[in-house]
Fold this protein.
Amino acid sequence: MDIQKRGRAGWRAARAVVVLVLWLVVGTPAIESEDSIPSLRCGTRLVLIGELKIDVLAKCGPPLYEQTVGERIIRTSRGYDKKIVEEWIYNFGPTDFVHTLRFEGGRLVAIIRGNGATPWIDPSA
């Protein structure tokens, strides 16, 4: 009887390890090649994933460049919903990274930091 209990405990432990490994491999999102970050500081204000375009505009001001990059079709309980995908580019100066903010349906879904500091581009020039 004691051997059977140990055998079951061993199988439970092995099953737990397999479930953990599967969760780590399948359950966690793939690491993107882009350098995604959860927030962006615009002066003294903090912009977070999930914010609306109007709030980002109020905190960071107008972007250096903005473009519509496509659309995403999402299935909902009422059918299908189309979300416009836009990207806003911010350059905060020669000592900072260029940041790309990606919006879907007017809501911020990604903040992508560029590869390095770039020369200052004055949008008013």
